Amino acid sequence: SSVADSEVGNFCQSRLCFHFPGPIRPKKIVSGNRCAAQPGIFRLTTFCQNFRCTRRTAAAMALRLFRLSQDVVTPLIKRNCSVSAFELQHKNPVARKVEKIPKAQYGGRHTVTMLPGGGIGPELMSYVREVFRFAGVPVDFEIVDIDPASEGNDDLEYAITSIKRNGVAIKGNIETKSEATGILSRNVALRNELDLYVNVLHCKSFNAIPAHHQNVDVVIVRQNTEGEYAMLEHESVRGVVESMKVVTIENAARVARFAFEFAKNNNRKKVTTIHKANIMKLADGLFLKVARDIAKEYPDIQHNDMIIDNCCMQLVSNPHQFDVMNTTNLYGSITSNVLCGLVGGAGLFSGRNYGDHYAVFEPGTRNTGTAIAGKNVANPVAMLSAAVDMLYHLGHRYHADCISDALHKTIDIDGIHTPDLGGTNTSTDIVQNVLKHLAEKRTYW
């Protein structure tokens, strides 16, 4: 009686079939006739036969159930805890958003894809697992090994499938030993397939590490899928090779907006766009124009630009003038290595790769370290820092704070340094000292 006749009539005309949501599905209809095109849909005539009622009565009941079905998802969203950013990023296919992520599911644990990579990667990953196990971090690893000598991409495809399933990964640098033109760089292919359009590297000085400059605090926001890394090359005529540099408005805008949002949310005052628009007037010119247009939307954040040649010199002579750097793919690779070298080296800093739905964490400079593999001298700080970033991303802030504090005390207070930092300690010395500091905290889950 609460359903108007006009509504029932319209519903009868527009919906010959209706759907019973799982929580309210009548048992009498579960075994009834289903619509051939849509298995979850029941025909109105079947409803009438089973309940021995008229089509109008059946339509009224169906309309009530249809209305109710519109709110079936609401209680799931409006639980005591709000929807996490992980759910928005990984579970929702239309969300284009990266936030502080997420609250854990399935008993409070997360499964993360681990790609050890080549060189020092496997031993560094073993240190990550050892620290996580000791601290009781609620994370399980799905380990996927990729054979660097393989000519096929089966391992890579499985790794991509695993990341899509889990939403988050931690990786070492994946070697691609084959020089055949048909074999793509596994690292680049991974970023492109998952659309990890931005890489974030935070370079901050350690007080106890001798460096060319102290008190450096710079964030590099790097476009991650285009530019010279598009891997589009061909030999037009014998002895003449052309390589394409791809810049699109969409991706230039995504990375620029990410840089300005990062600056806004982290109380940063300036964004510097790095380019070579004086020579590549169309490609880098477009990247610079998009950055300038987006800068107008953030009047409280200062924006300037700098040519890559001059930028490298300025980084070496006066890095304190930089705050957040917005760069293309190749320029980001160059400036990342220059900046890391200035404040301590490749073994200290982590890199974060973000897309709309997935996130991958790795050492910041993406070096394989084949020459020192297995010698117990590789610096594990970068990989452990990547693991800390991953924990913040997953929402396990307490464990992340504990491990980050243990790393800080090991490097800055205890002065335990590997040879790349001018010290004499081994990789296991650093890990054992981190575990010693973790033992002083209540880190079990």
From TrEMBL:
Subcellular compartments: Mitochondrion
Cross-referenced Pfam families: Iso_dh
Family annotation (SUPFAM superfamilies): Isocitrate/Isopropylmalate dehydrogenase-like
Domain Isopropylmalate dehydrogenase-like: 111-434
GO BP terms in the entry: isocitrate metabolic process; tricarboxylic acid cycle
UniProt entry tagged with the keyword Transit peptide: yes
Key words of the record: Mitochondrion, Transit peptide, Tricarboxylic acid cycle
Domain of life: Eukaryota
Record family assignment: Belongs to the isocitrate and isopropylmalate dehydrogenases family.
Protein name: Isopropylmalate dehydrogenase-like domain-containing protein
